[in-house]
Design goal:
The structure holds two protein chains of two kinds. Chain A is mainly α. Chain A is built from 13 helices and no strands. In chain A, α2 runs parallel beside α4. Chain A is elongated, with a radius of gyration of 19 Å. Classes of the chains: A mainly alpha, B alpha/beta. The complex binds zinc ion. The site of zinc ion has 6 residues of chain B, from loops.
């Protein structure tokens, strides 16, 4: 009677093709998703509740929710509302959908910045995809990388890490200062810090 | 021993509590929306609270290997404040969320007409959203409160079999049981029930459809009361299966009426390396605590 799903939400969705996604679902979930996607594409009034309930219909749901968003293509005001009124999982889906929806940075960046203010590591990771790599200001992006080191989000989850870090002297300074602080406190310096620091030292 | 605390207000508790609860065997909890001690003055204050029960608190719980679900509602006390009551209009958009496994806590505090209205309205919301309801029974004038609650449930679209009547005690258990509802007991230092009385009630009325919770919150309360009841049951001659029924299978069965209870661990297996961190499990040590569904 308990809804037991095949696995946990991966928190790594974003670009799964509908066929790939459907292949991992059972018959009921597949039918539900097909129907929900059609409602979303038609912008039928019931599509937003489908977005909310995707987790219990076809979890792991990040990919399914992103699929609904790309089908519905909500305007920036609706997208912002879906984020603000969403659970952590729904917010994650909105963040993952930003690059696919090619949301205007005037609307998308404030959502990324909101997620970067949280301490929920699944939101941080979802916020640091291609969209952030393309649109975040240098100061915000550097603090996001540092926050990954603080909260244990693997920097492998940061899109465009190598290209944005390369030759970034300010990021290098921040990383060295953090390493010094860790060392002074007798704490280990995370491997990821050395990795990013090496990237900053590559020539631009 | 696996423990499901079906009623605990973790927002008011520390990470030390989460750690101690996990060590005691708690693997799943439900956090009902309730009064914060300090009265709210607007629906916006409820929105932030509900968002926290759907976002930050499950993340915090997952870091300690505990699965977190919630019940949402306008609580009985604040149903009397006209500044808060409009949140009833916002509940439908919250009740569709995945981690919401019941409407609650609803019920009576002082048994006022405003409380009648909020209870009626929210029992209907539960029926409309295919959710069960967690119904708090009042601390003052308890038996009269229980009877009025049972009348409200009988007049509603929600069958008693989808209702958990909470904060029961020796004076209310019999009529509550006759109604066909699930029976909740809050074991709380000084007030409500204690372990010894809980065991006596289980002896007299049996473990069927009985749920035990700590109702721990910002008051003098103990998040390990569930475990203490389990130990008291074993000491009194109940067997492991009785304990598992009361402390795990009954709460799982009740909240599964929502169709939304997910007792999968926050992270499993090597294919999701790094993911345990992203979902909030500790980076080292026992990151995953798989929880088998018991019913
Ligand atoms: Zn409570």
């Amino acid at each position: 009677m308990t809804a037991v799903h095949a696995g946990p939400d991966t928190g790594q969705g974003g670009a799964a093709r509908p066929e790939t996604l459907a292949a991992g679902l059972d018959e009921d979930a597949r039918r539900w998703l097909e129907q929900a996607r059609a409602e979303a594409a038609a912008q039928a009034p019931g599509w937003e509740p489908r977005f909310a309930e995707a987790g219990r219909r076809c979890g792991p749901a990040d990919d399914a929710r992103v699929l609904l968003l790309t089908a519905a293509r909500p305007d920036p005001a609706d997208l912002t509302r879906l984020y603000r009124q969403g659970t952590a999982a729904e917010r994650r889906a909105v963040l993952l959908a930003l690059p696919l929806l090619e949301t205007d940075p005037a609307h998308g960046v404030p959502l990324v910045e909101d997620a970067l203010r949280t301490n929920d590591t699944s939101l941080l990771a979802a916020a640091l995809g291609d969209y952030a790599a393309r649109h975040l200001q240098a100061h915000t992006w550097r603090h996001a990388v540092l926050k990954c080191l603080f909260t244990g989000v693997p920097v492998s989850r940061v899109a465009g890490l190598a290209s944005r870090s390369r030759g970034d002297g300010e990021l290098a300074r921040m990383l060295r200062a953090y390493a010094a602080e860790r060392t002074a406190a007798g704490r280990a310096v995370p491997d990821d810090l050395h990795h990013v620091l090496a990237l900053t030292e590559e020539e631009r | 021993m696996r423990i499901f605390d079906p009623h605990i207000h973790m927002t008011s508790r520390t990470t030390d509590d989460y750690e101690a609860m996990h060590a005691a065997g708690v693997r799943a909890i439900v956090e009902p929306a309730f009064w914060l001690g300090q009265p709210r003055t607007s629906p916006a204050s409820f929105h932030d609270y509900f968002d926290s029960l759907l976002g930050w608190e499950p993340f915090r719980a997952a870091q300690y290997g505990i699965t977190h679900h919630c019940t949402l509602a306008l609580n009985p006390k604040e149903a009397n404040d006209p500044r808060c009551a409009p949140v009833l209009d916002d509940l439908p958009r919250y009740l569709v969320k995945d981690q919401v496994v019941a409407v609650g806590e609803i019920g009576y505090d002082s048994m006022t007409p405003a409380e009648d209205t909020a209870l009626e309205h929210q029992l209907q919301l539960a029926a409309d959203h295919d959710l069960p309801a967690l119904v708090h029974t009042p601390h003052r004038d308890k038996l009269a409160g229980l009877r009025r609650t049972l009348d409200a449930v009988a007049a509603s679209a929600l069958p008693a079999e989808r209702v958990l009547l909470d904060h029961l005690n020796e004076t209310t258990v019999e009529e509550a049981k006759d109604s066909g509802a699930w029976l909740g007991f809050s074991v709380y230092p000084d007030t409500k029930m204690d372990e010894r009385r809980m065991v006596a009630v289980l002896r007299e009325f049996g473990p069927e459809k009985v749920l035990v919770n700590s109702a721990a919150d910002w008051g003098k309360s103990d998040p390990l009361k569930t475990r203490k009841v389990a130990d008291a049951m074993l000491a009194a001659g109940f067997d492991e299966d009785d304990v598992d029924l009361v402390l795990w299978r009954n709460p799982v069965a009740f909240y599964s009426l929502s169709g939304r209870l997910r007792l999968t661990a926050p992270a499993t297996g090597p294919t999701h390396e790094g993911n345990s961190i992203l979902r909030g499990a500790p980076a080292t040590g026992t990151a995953a605590h798989p929880v088998a569904a018991g019913a």
